[in-house]
Amino acid sequence: xxxxxxxxxxxxxxxxxxxxxxxxxxxxxxxxxxxxxxxxxxxxxxxxxxxxxxxxxxxxxxxxxxxxxxxxxxxxxxxxxxxxxxxxxxxxxxxxxxxxxxxxxxxxxxxxxxx
Length: 115
Hints:
Blueprint: H1 6-14, H2 26-31, H3 38-42, H4 48-51, H5 54-74, H6 76-96, H7 101-108
Helix pairs in contact: 5-6, 6-7
C-alpha cells in the first residue's frame, strides 16, 4: 500500500470520521490522487452532492438500495462498510436540503434492505 503523503495525513486529521464522498471537492480528489467526477472539474469548489440533479440523486439512491439489499444478504461485513458510507452521503444530502426527512428516514433504516 502506498504511504500517505503530508497532505493526506493532514486531511485525515481534519476529517477524523472520514468525509461523505458526495461532499468531496476537487481539492479532496487531488489530495488523494483520485480521478474526480467531470462535474467537479467544471465547477471547482462545489461538491458532487451540490451539483447532482434530483433525477441523479434518485438514480444514486436506487443503485445504492439495490447494492445494499444484495450485500446485506451475502456479506454482512461489506454491507456494514458500504451502508456507513451511504449513510454519510445521505446525511450530507439532507444537510444540503437535497433530500426530504421522510426519504432520509426510509433509506437510513437498515430493515428496508432485507429481502
